[in-house]
Amino acid sequence: TAGLDTDRMGQHVIAHDEVVSTQPLAHEAAARGAKEGTLVLAELQTGGKGRLGRPWHSPKGTGIWMSLIIRPAIPLPKTPQMTLLTAVSVARAIREETGLPVKIKWPNDIFIGDKKVCGILTELNAESDRVNYLVIGIGLNANSVAEDFPEELARIATSLRIESGEPIKRARFIQQFCRIFEEEYDHYLAHGFARAKAEWEKHSYTIGRWVNVQTISQRLEGRAVGLDEEGVLMVEDQDGAIHKVYSADVNYRAN
Ligand code: BTN
């Protein structure tokens, strides 16, 4: 691809006009042996999927709706780090391309101010303890204008165009994301998670805030204090006890 400065990421692109969701298409491609770095893109998703079974609003032409296949040789418990690494990479790409002050809301939402501009949905394919591949779905509101959002989203969602006042070139953004992600990913594979963890914490929306955490097994309130070495969120309660939060809905309140 012209302009693509990578070794693997984005070297194979499967581009569609209209799909239900790029996620199952990426799974099918991966099952057929698609190489690491293969990207599935769509202009429009009729059944875009968000986390926790939620729908993802994916109108035609304004967004970047894409699923990336990676095949990291890492143990299963480390796979959540791939989502954090992706969030760090998207945030970097947005900063470098637009200069906008983006923040990462745990685990993987990208925020500008108090509105969400990008969501990440990671799906894992593994056999017993072995990771076959991951499909990382990225939904970025790129060129939407305010009227493009349904009423219930307008209060909580934004786009790069709304925030910066000008449209972005989507193909260029994807190329830059691929370059940045490959750099972060190669660094991670060679040297581990520490750099991405520090970068995540530096640009975190979550660290320092009071949060309400509702997991299947617990309800907890406290201050988000950081990530542990594995990428698990640590929350300190009123009594100073540290709790580890693996995957849950985190609600925020003003300090
Ligand atoms: C979230 O914040 O809940 C995650 C949203 C992920 C949306 C992307 S768009 C491309 C890929 N295909 C999907 O159906 N979902 C992901």
From TrEMBL:
Residues of the full protein shown: 72 to 326 of 327
Enzyme class: ligase
Annotated gene: birA
Residues annotated to bind biotin: Q45, K116
Transmembrane segments annotated in the record for this chain: none
GO MF annotation list: biotin--[biotin carboxyl-carrier protein] ligase activity
Entry keywords, A to Z: ATP-binding, Biotin, DNA-binding, Ligase, Nucleotide-binding, Repressor, Transcription, Transcription regulation
Residue ranges constituting the BPL/LPL catalytic domain according to the UniProt record: 1-189
Name of the protein this chain belongs to: Bifunctional ligase/repressor BirA
Enzyme Commission identifier(s): 6.3.4.15
Catalytic activity reported: biotin + L-lysyl-[protein] + ATP = N(6)-biotinyl-L-lysyl-[protein] + AMP + diphosphate + H(+)
Origin species: Brevibacillus brevis (Bacillus brevis)
Protein task: Acts both as a biotin--[acetyl-CoA-carboxylase] ligase and a repressor.
